[in-house]
Amino acid sequence: MTHIRPERRPIRWLALALPLVFLAAACGDDGDSSSDTTTTTGGTTTTFAAGTTMARVAESGTLTVGVKFDQPGFGLKNPTTNEVEGFDVEIANAIADAIGEDVEVNLVESVSKNREPFIQDGTVDLVVATYTINDTRKQVVDFAGPYFVARQDIMVRADDTSIKAVGDLNGKKVCTVKGSTSATNVTAAAPTADVTLFDTYSQCAEAMGDGRVEAVTTDNTILAGLVQASNGAYKLVKAPFSDEPYGIGLKKGDEAFRTFINDLLEEMFDDGSWAEAFESTLGKIGLDTPAPPKVDRYTAA
Ligand code: GLU
After folding, report:
1. Which residues line ligand 1 (CB under 6 A)?
2. What is the pTM of this model?
3. Of all atoms in ligand 1, which is nearest to the CA of residue 68?
4. Tell me: the pLDDT tens digits for 52-76?
5. Centre of ligand 1 from the C-alpha of residue 219, in Å
6. Residue 108 backbone dihedrals phi, psi, to 5 degrees
7. Residue-wise pLDDT tens digits, 251-280
């Protein structure tokens, strides 16, 4: 499933003081084009060294990004407009705009379990999909960011009084998603929970609606969107039990692209465009804008 956004509205982060030249030697792309690529972003000319991912994307005019299509606030396909909307989509748009104002974003639906494979096999250039940075995943992909820190929590039916903390999930039917940190974390924290794994959190919410499960567990921000969409049927337990720093997944070893995105994130944190993107998406489902996190420019293994 793909979605090409037809037009992009003007945004404030176009005039960025990003480094002008990235060394081909430092990048993980094997492109053999010999000349640098120059693009314009909001009146600023940027040159990308031949062979970098930024040069390839600028030349092709398309940045392909894996996002969720069923998560309110982060990536949700609006059934009326068919547009995919949310904070993750705004981050993807900002990256495309920073590469070149003519660069289109091609949004590909990613579910939790196919994020690493999509990056590794080149289905996508990036994944921006409520994607927690962790050491296991860093063995096969790299991450720019974090650009947000969520916490794992629990969603139950509004009339449930039996589940107040993660330990109460022992012996209960709980739903979460294949390939997620939520699955690993809940199994560690509530070892006798009866865990059902689906591909998406919207499937879990449906399963709670018809009584197949008693609780859904994942990041509090994802659950907040599902609670809002339930029209009073579900509530958030508000007993968080993990930190989930969201990163932008990219091909392992592509240091130039990682640095480019980390520079952009810091610009967005400083100039208010990150907060603006938050308010126009997650703000609308009732979340207060937090202070931005600190970018982690880790040394790749
Ligand atoms: N942030 C967690 C993860 O990356 C849970 C949410 C998700 O599956 O997208 O696994």
Report:
1. 112, 129-132, 177, 180-182, 218-219, 222, 244
2. 0.88
3. 9
4. 999 999 999 999 999 999 999 999 9
5. 7
6. -115, 135
7. 999 999 999 999 999 999 999 999 999 999
